[in-house]
C-alpha cells in the first residue's frame, strides 16, 4: 500500500555552509568548516550530511557557500555525490536569514516543502518522521530539538544540601535548536532579505502558533562540530557506535 504521507515529504534541501569556523582553527585555515574531516572517517562533515539527506529521500540540495567557497565548490564538483547539488555564494553578507532566503530561491521546486541544515551538524535520525510531524501539526516551520550533554560534571544533592552523587557530562534539562529544519513552501517569503530569521521570523511564527519543535529521538546521534574537542569526541563516539 502506498504511504499517503510520502508525497508530502521534502525531496529538496538547503545546507548552510558559509561559516568561517574560527573556533576550529587551524583546521579551517585552508578550508571551510563543513570541509573539515571527522577523524577516522576520511569524509568531510558535508559529505556525511549529503549521504544522510540522500538516505532520507532528498534528491536536490542547494549548498550556500561563503568562507573559502572555492574549496568547497571544487570538492563538490569532483566528488561522486548521492544527490544533485547546486552551489550559491552570497554577493554580499546577508545574515543568516537573508542567506537562507537567497539559497532557497535556487531550490528546484519552490512550491514544495524543503529541509535545511547548518553545515556543522553531524547527526542521524529520521527526517521522514520529522516531515510527518511537521505535516500533522500544519506548521510553517519545524525545528529539530536536541538535548546536548553539558561540558561539565554535575552534582546531585538531597533536600538537606548533602551531595549524593556526581554525574559526568549529564544531558541538559533544556532542549535546543539542533540546526535541522523542515519548512513549508510559504516559509521562504517570510524570511528577511537581510538579517537573522531566528530573531524575526521564528519568534513571529511562535507567537502565531505556526512553529513546531520535533525532539530528536532518544538514542539518535547529534553533535554540532564547533571546536577541535568536538571533532575528537565525535570520532570517539562514532567509533563506539560502530563496534
TrEMBL record:
It comes from the Bacteria. InterPro entries: Mannose-1P_guanyltransferase, NTP_transferase_dom, Nucleotide-diphossugar_trans. Residues 13-238 form the Nucleotidyl transferase domain. It holds the Pfam family NTP_transferase. PANTHER family: SUGAR-1-PHOSPHATE GUANYL TRANSFERASE. This is Guanyltransferase. It comes from Streptomyces daghestanicus.
